[in-house]
Design a protein that fits this description.
The chain is α/β, with parallel strands linked by helices and 324 residues long. Helices cover 30% and strands 17% of the residues. The protein has a twelve-stranded mixed sheet with strand order 7-8-9-6-5-4-3-2-1-10-11-12. Helix 3 runs parallel beside helix 5.
């Protein structure tokens, strides 16, 4: 069992396979992009699989593949199949922006992905092009439709941005009435480019809930997993509505059960921390499995009690490098 210094059981590993992304979302990355990590600094698939295997032996049973955009990295399907062969990993999912999903969905399903989190901040084609700086709205919508046809468990991640998509909250929510999907509204966290985006006002989860209930009626609490979302359902709806509120809910960190592995081998214990433990260097120096396991377990004990609420932390790292 993998336990941190505050007796939280760590069962969830998010793995970033690349820092590269085909979008330039305004709250994530500057228009000119960033300098990509050199290829030699990126973990090889076999190195990542080794870390996942060791984590599974000490308590991790849930893995999510992230990026950047994971579908831009070659050889991803074989990597996914490799994770599926690791004993103890019972839940394998992926976060994607959906642009390449219509062509990739069937192969992802065959390789072993059963759940998809798809990022989509607007249902308006022009606003999509504005926020992402890329004209790919139709590709994303086709990818979502294809994934639904194939039977994936789908969550749509909507970053709530005051003055941008606040007029679409109920439009998103209504999609759960007839579709068995979960729309998840996420508070914009002031880190990296997001700290300089728009008026930077946090569009609070309780505001979003009030907006939906004003039109749809009282939301009924719904069952959810061990993740951070508070989940509800419009009465009689097939799908669910989730709220992720790291900025306004101070119990958020107490429920944290995850660690992150960045594309360059940093073990991130907290999303909002700029610190990480380098696993890549000892791996390439030939550290044994036992030594690597001990390093991970000792590192997890350093996981902070709180992250986003610690004054002085500005989370300046870009999300494409951290892994969302």
């Amino acid at each position: 069992m993998l336990i941190d210094g505050f007796k939280r059981e760590i069962r969830y590993l998010r793995v970033s396979v690349t820092d590269r992304c085909n979008l330039r979302c305004r709250y994530c990355m500057p228009e000119e992009g960033i300098e990509w990590l050199p290829h030699e600094d990126i973990m090889r698939y076999e190195e990542i699989l080794r870390v996942i295997r060791i984590c599974s032996e000490i308590g991790v049973d849930k893995v999510r593949i992230t990026g950047g955009e994971p579908l831009v990295r070659k050889g991803l399907l074989g990597f996914i199949e490799g994770i599926r062969e690791i004993n103890g990993i019972n839940d394998l999912s992926m976060t994607t922006n959906g642009v390449f999903l219509s062509n990739a969905a069937q192969n992802l399903k065959s390789a072993g992905i059963n759940r998809l989190n798809i990022s989509l901040d607007t249902l308006n084609k022009e606003k999509f092009s504005y926020i992402t700086r890329v004209n790919a709205f139709d590709d994303v919508m086709n990818g979502i439709e294809k994934s639904m046809e194939l039977g994936f468990i789908i969550k749509i991640n909507v970053v709530a941005i005051a003055g941008f998509n606040d007029d679409e909250i109920n439009t998103f929510a209504r999609h759960t009435i007839e579709k068995d999907i979960e729309i998840r509204f996420i508070e914009l966290m002031p880190m990296g480019c997001a700290a300089r985006f728009g008026n930077n006002r946090v569009f609070r989860a309780n505001e979003l809930k009030d907006i939906i209930e004003s039109e749809q009626g009282i939301l009924d609490p719904a069952t959810s997993g061990l993740g951070p979302a508070k989940v509800y359902r419009i009465r009689g709806a097939k799908g669910k509505i989730g709220f992720i509120d790291p900025m306004t809910e101070h119990s958020f960190c107490r429920r944290c059960n995850r660690i992150r592995l960045t594309a360059n081998g940093q073990l991130k214990l907290c999303l909002f921390s700029e610190d990480g433990i380098d696993l890549l260097k000892p791996i390439r120096k030939g550290v044994s499995d036992k030594e690597l396991s001990s390093l991970i377990m000792e590192s997890v004990k350093l996981k902070p009690a709180h992250g986003i609420h610690i004054e002085g932390r500005n989370g300046s790292g870009t999300m494409n490098r951290i892994g969302g």
